[in-house]
Amino acid sequence: MSDPYRFDSTPTSAPDEEHRTASGSGALRVLVWGVFIVCLAANTVTSLSGAPFLLSSGFGAVALACLIVLTVGYVKGRR
Q: Does residue 73 contact residue 24 with C-beta atoms inside 8 Å?
C-alpha cells in the first residue's frame, strides 16, 4: 500500500513534454478543420456550378479524409 503523504523524487512524466504534445495535436486539429471546411465549400461550389465531376469528387474525397482523421483523433483522445 502506498503512503499518500510520502514525497517521491522520481517524476512520472515530464510536464513540458506532455504539454508540447497536446499543443502540437491541437494545431494539427485546427489545420485539419480548416482544410475540411475549405474542401467542403469547394465541393459545394463545384457541384452546383457544373464543374467537371472529377474536380468535385477530388474535393469531396479530401473532405472525407479530413473527416476520418478528425473522427479517429476524437476516438483516440477519449481513451
A: no
